[in-house]
Design brief:
The complex is a heterodimer of chains A (about 190) and B (about 260). Helix content of chain A is about 60%, strand content about 0%. By secondary structure, chain A is mainly alpha-helical. Chain A has 2 domains: about 90 residues, Rna Polymerase Sigma Factor, Chain: A (Orthogonal Bundle), CATH 1.10.1740.10; about 80 residues, Winged helix-like DNA-binding domain superfamily/Winged helix DNA-binding domain (Arc Repressor Mutant, subunit A), CATH 1.10.10.10. The relative contact order of chain A is 0.13. By secondary structure, chain B is mostly helical. In chain B, a hairpin with a 5-residue loop joins strand 3 and strand 4. Chain B starts with a helix and ends in a 32-residue tail after the last strand. Chains A and B meet through helix 2, helix 3, helix 5, helix 6 and helix 8 of A and helix 1, helix 2, helix 3 and helix 4 of B.
Chain lengths: ~190, ~260
């Protein structure tokens, strides 16, 4: 998060300053990719590029602080993800997840590594095993850093419904962590 | 119905606000809102905290690999907004070039079509006459009214259903211009009864009055049921005033 620097960076980026835009991009691209990977899988990088193109076109008309900027950006990301889902529903293809980026959890693997070595990819892979709405809300709250009301505006639910979905997701995760095994890149498996 | 649903939702949300979070819910909210591992928490919760902290970890090199491409796309997206004036200049330059070329092309095609029509003689009479005078196109054909005028036939009594057409106008000097009446014209077989005036010098001038005993052979009125024909024979009554110049041999008694 840029915090106090955000207004200046936003103003410069809106004026066409490439360095300011790069600062915004470096701050927001990682959570954007993680959110899109949870929601759209292999299409995450393509969707992220589309989102940034949209930001570049409309950043001059944006007004608000850093939280509003993130809410605006992730709302665009969610709409593009929904469009992608509709497109894929009309033209179904065999799903191919980018295995180099993240590995999906595999319950039948044995684990030998220590808990402290859990990577970001492994943690996201574990969250991705949740129902899509719960995983989406947990990522928006934990990874992007939005509060319940901001997430509610993005996903089109009430703040209460967002809280309930998040709590259910965390409870499910805790139950799975009690005895589940997650495959991490570079290792055969990690016991959490 | 919508108001009722809204009031129900409001009641439900206010009730939820009044109900304090349970310990699990409070822990979940803290997990979602804060990062860091609580060492005093139960093991399962610590594990969950570790997972969430890892998910929100620092950016990886792979995630930041596309920075150059993103900045390039940003600058390219700004380019159309920065250069609208240049595009206007391009439009201003192109339009004057395109319009004359198009106009000249259309005008040339129109002139070609007009000339072709004039050569075919299909223009209206005034235009065709103008084309005839200017570019040497064929002269306009006579109007249909003029062509129909000689063809006004008469039904001859006694010939039911037949139309009597006048014969074409003779090429020889004719008397009068009444197409429906036979014209009396001097013919080689003309028999002239003249009054000779002999002045004794062997020259006589004769003023013949034709039409008395003349029997014009051509032209003659024709009776035809289909097309007028010059070879048909008929009886015609002709009254004409003719001025004939004839050479006649007069026999007269002259007083020299």
């Amino acid at each position: 998060m840029l915090d106090g620097d955000f207004p200046q960076v936003l103003r410069l980026a809106a004026a066409g300053d490439a360095a300011a835009f790069a600062t915004l991009w470096r701050d927001t691209q990682p959570p954007l990719l993680r959110y899109l990977w949870i929601s759209a899988g292999h299409a995450a990088e393509d969707l992220a590029a589309e989102v940034w193109l949209e930001v570049a076109k409309r950043i001059g008309s944006f007004r608000g602080g850093e939280h509003e900027f993130r809410g605006w950006l992730f709302t665009m990301a969610r709409r593009k993800m929904i469009d992608r889902h509709r497109y894929e529903a009309r033209r179904p293809v065999s799903p191919t997840i980018d295995g180099e980026l993240l590995d999906r959890p595999a319950a039948d693997d044995t684990a030998t590594a220590a808990l402290e070595e859990i990577s970001t990819e492994t943690a996201l892979a574990l969250i991705a095993t949740l129902p899509r709405d719960q995983a989406e809300i947990i990522v928006l709250r934990v990874v992007v850093g939005l509060d319940a009301s901001a997430v509610a505006q993005i996903v089109g639910k009430s703040p209460g419904a967002v809280r309930v979905a998040a709590h259910r997701g965390l409870r499910t995760l805790r139950e799975r962590l009690d005895g589940a095994t997650v495959t991490s890149p570079g290792r055969r498996g990690v016991t959490l | 119905m919508r108001l009722f649903a809204a009031s129900l939702a409001e009641m439900w949300s206010s009730a939820c606000r009044r109900i304090p979070l349970s310990s699990d819910e409070a822990a979940a909210e803290r997990l979602l809102a804060e990062r860091g591992v609580d060492l005093e928490a139960p093991a399962s919760q610590r594990t969950l905290e570790l997972v969430l902290t890892a998910a929100a970890g620092p950016a990886t090199e792979r995630e930041l690999a596309g920075e150059a491409a993103a900045v390039t796309a940003f600058l390219a997206a700004l380019e159309p907004e920065r250069a609208p004036q240049h595009r206007h200049h391009h439009h201003r330059r192109r339009r004057p070039r395109r319009i004359p070329v198009l106009t000249v092309g259309v005008a040339f095609a129109a002139v070609l079509a007009l000339c072709g029509t004039a050569e075919a003689g299909a223009l209206p009479a005034p235009l065709q006459q103008l084309a005839h005078q200017t570019i040497g196109a064929p002269a306009p054909a006579p109007s249909p009214a003029m062509r129909d005028q000689p063809a006004t036939g008469r039904v001859t009594p006694g010939s039911a259903g037949t139309v009597t057409y006048p014969a074409p106008a003779p090429t020889s000097p004719s008397v009068g211009h009444q197409p429906t009446t036979p014209s009396a014209s001097p013919s080689p077989t003309h028999t002239d009864n003249g009054h000779g005036t002999d002045n004794g010098r062997g020259r006589s001038s004769d003023n013949g009055n034709g039409g008395d005993t003349s029997t014009p052979d051509t032209p003659s009125p024709t009776t035809d049921s289909s097309t007028p024909s010059a070879s048909s024979q008929g009886n015609g009554n002709g009254n004409g005033n003719g001025n004939g110049n004839g050479n006649g041999n007069g026999n007269g008694n002259g007083n020299g």
